[in-house]
Amino acid sequence: MTSIKTLDKGKVLFVFSSAGKGYSLEEIDSLENFVLNGGGLYIGAENWPLQTEANQLTDRMFQKKVFGYYSKEVAETSKEGNFNLEELNQFPSGKTSVAFPLDHRLLVEAWIEDQPLILSGYYGKGRVVLDGGYSRFYCNQINSESKRMMGEIYNFLRDD
Q: How many CB atoms lie within 10 A of CB 74?
């Protein structure tokens, strides 16, 4: 993780959950404050055990954690989100995707089966994206649709 002392120097931070020990309470506080004060935070997860940091952060911010295991290869976009996805109806969902619970504070950007795969919204002065299928960004799985999705995520988090 970026040093806690340097979080205020960035505008966007990407967290790709691991199977590790996770963050300390001080680090969770720092990440939450980063977003509350205007930063953009991407929180990515995959099927167990790649959920540690995502569950810590989403539990703190939304009192919710990832669930399920979805092996469907294609996700469907939502036309009601914060992203500009008019030309992109489907894209790779990720190799071993999970879902995030619906939350009235977040908009669904993409669905896996009938569950939210990617959600976005505002948190304090900042922005957050929850993604249950970050393996679509792995070198051996990336394609033009996943690159487009990464661009939309980045633009939203930067407030572009």
A: 12
